[in-house]
Every structure is written in C-alpha cells, then in structure tokens.
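step: validate -> pass
step: tokenize input -> pass
step: predict -> running
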Amino acid sequence: MKRIATFCLFQLFLSQVITFAQPTDFAPVGAKWYYSEQAFVAWPVPKNFPHIVEVESKEMYQGKLCSKLVGVASETVPEPLYVYSQNDSVFFYSLRSNQFELLYDFTAQAGDSWTMHGLKTTIDLDSLTVQVDSVSQIIVSGNTLKVLHTTCNYLFFDWGCDIIAGVGNTAFLTPDFGLFEGGPWGLRCYTDASIDLHFVSYPCDTTLVVTATADPADRYGIRVFPNPAGPQINITLEGSLHQPIMRLYNQFGLLLRQTPIQLGQTAMPTGDLPSGLYFWDVSAENKRIKCGRTVIIQ
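step: predict -> pass
step: emit ->
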C-alpha cells in the first residue's frame, strides 16, 4: 500500500514538473495587449488613447505554426506580425532577413543578453542587443510575474527597460525605430483566455485627456542646462519622482551615461566626451518624463 501511495505521489510530482516545464504559448488566439498612445490631435488638449495589439489567428507561416498579431504599428517589424514560441523564447518573421529572428528570451537571467536581427529601419542598422541587468518579480492582479530589467545598445530603437516573461515589453511590444518619436508607450493591460493582468488602475480602453496646456514634465521642475555644455551637464528636479534617471546618448543612439537624479541639482560629468550633438532623456518607473538634445563644446 505504501508503495502504491509513494508511486502515486511520485506520478503527481512528475506531472507537476512536466506541466511547469512546458513552454508557454506567448500569443494565444484572442490575446490582447493594451498600450497607451499619446497624441495632440485635439491641441492644445493632449489625449492618451488606448492602442490595442491582438492575436487574430493561428496559421502556418513560413513552415511554422504562428500567431498572427495585428495592430503592432511599429516601424521596426512588419504588421501583421507572425510569431511563434519555443522553450520560452519568442521568434518573429523578419521581411528584411527573410527568416525567423529572436524577439524575446524569457529564460534570460542577470548578465545574459540577446540580439535581434533583421529589424526594418531607415538607416543601415538592423539589429538591437538587449542586456539583462537584473531580474525580479512583481505581483499583478494576483499573479507573480518574472521581470527582466534591461538596457539596449542603441537609442534609435525606442524600447522600454522592463520585459515581463510571457507578456513582453512594458513600453512597446516590439522595438520601435525612431528617436523620441512617440507611438504606443506604456503597457496598460494584457488579457487572454487564462489570465487578466491590469497594470493601471483605470479601464484598459480608457481615453485620457490632459487638461493642462503646459508640458506635463514641467510639474516636476526638470531643467537641463547649460546648452551648450562643457565639462558637466546640470539637471534640476523640483517635483517628486521615484528613482529618476537621466541618460545621455551620442548622435548614433549609443548610451554613454546614466545618472540617478536627486531633488535639487545633480551634475553629470561630460569632460571626457568629444564636442558634438548629444541626446538625453529623464525617466522614472520605466516611463520617459522628458527628453531633449544638447551640444557639448570642450
């Protein structure tokens, strides 16, 4: 009897391990990602529209059973987008390289990296390397989710810093090519037949209207000076932000500096940088608050 009970327990344990080890279907039919898309179509009253990416169907594409995603609205990947998942990695079909390329590696740990090839751009740059700086967990709608905190090697691909395993990037579902050119930014919700994740407190499909006509970043008192700059750039912050960071990029979009910002004034050393045009942004909680450009003259 004990042998039977032990065998049953072993079978139960084995089935749980097998179930846990099974690769996740990244994009089941009916899955939806709700992002925020900012626009000034009703200027001077800016609006924040819901931008929805949806899995329309499963179909054979280039020899693989793929999910067909519509509403991607990216200048970097085709729309519709065909993806398939294997061993918790997600691959998309690139019309530039005419083959499947790696989009996500949800198994990545701190120190790992992967490179996406075959990206469609207007310049001679078709790849993006994603570096995993750290890994953590968050609880959303009662679900514990693995989060990859990442940085990317080129600013020209406007992508966020956090990737949620099984869900995707929290800023754009796919890399968006363009220097601060907007588009859908910020994951509101993700839903499919088995899970319903809300990252915001308001309904997923809500259109938000900002009544203030001034730059929303002005309420934080963010100022970057002088311009032109020399041996250092100064950043002032008057409002409350959670762990704000300023990043500085060269004209090719390569990240050169990142400095935590304190209330009051913070200095970013730039004395070792050559004279030229540079881009900067200030972000907090994976959201870009303000961005601009500056000239450094040594």
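step: describe -> Residues 8 and 254 are 56 Å apart (CA to CA).
step: cleanup -> pass
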